[in-house]
Amino acid sequence: MEIYVAKTAGFCFGVKRAINLATSSTKEGGNIYTLGSIIHNPQVVKELEDIGIHAKDSIDDVDEGTLIIRSHGAKYEDFEKAKEKGLRIVDATCPFVKKAQELVSRLTEEGYHVIVVGEREHPEVKGLVSYGAEDIRVVESPEELKDMPRRRKIGIVAQTTISMEKFEAVVGFCLRKAGEIKIFNTICNATTIRQKESVELARRVDCVIVVGGRNSANTRRLAEICRSIQPRTYHIEVPEEIDPAWFEDTEALAITAGASTPHWLIEKVVSEINSLCSK
Questions:
Q1: How confident is the model over 37-57, as pLDDT tens digits?
Q2: 196 shares its domain with 265
Q3: Is residue 117 domain-shared with residue 174, that is, in the same domain?
Q4: How far apart are the C-alpha atoms of 50 and 36, rounded to whole Å?
Q5: How many CB atoms lie within 10 A of CB 273?
Q6: Which helix (H) or strand (E) holds 167?
Q7: Catalytic residue among 28, 47, 124, 267
Q8: Range of the domain at 89
Q9: Among 77, 119, 180, 195, which one has the highest count of C-beta atoms within 10 angstroms of its own C-beta?
Q10: Distance CA 103, CA 91 (A)
Q11: 48 near 24, Cβ under 8 Å?
Q12: Do 20 and 87 belong together in one domain?
């Protein structure tokens, strides 16, 4: 069986940066916390816990020490609370997310009705919303905007990991609803490249394995995209989840992974599949 591993599988720039900032913060000593999981990968979160970096769900749970802002960013009010508490802040927000936050703030100041194309409950999106006005809207499809009246000014940004198809659909609808419109494609290029490469692989193989946290939006989206092309697509977090039956009558297999999946985990998956297939 031929095994193809996506060239872009694994950590993106923003995730690598966040992990490096987190591990470097241990040199300062003291208690170290992340506001939420630093990235959406349980295995990496466990690794950080082992070196003394603990995730807290709320800023109210941190009273002293170092606070690391995760790659998804944080709400504006959480930054302000952290400053008031006198915490040492290590901002590991992905630069692409930070840019989207700045755009939401700027569009709001300029009087635009801001629309974020993304998942309402995703931590990155919750952070983006906090930089806008009360009437900011979060949608994933044009159907969610059917009740929106015509607006004089509309500004649109995207969750960095949302699909281009969803972004374009919302933009197309809003073009008919605005007298003036500003559109910022804030989708991370790494997301687009990973999705494109995974699509190409899915078309060439008999089975696809997608490796990464089930709480990772971009990993789940990779699995959805691959499954739409190759029904024999399986999303796993760890090698122990692999079922040898998946590889029956399989001549070519593709392995891809989300932007928050460490390379050592991808290598373990490849090794496990090779071991199973050699038996």
A1: 998 899 999 999 999 999 999
A2: yes
A3: yes
A4: 16
A5: 21
A6: helix 164-174
A7: 124
A8: 13-93
A9: 195
A10: 18
A11: no
A12: yes
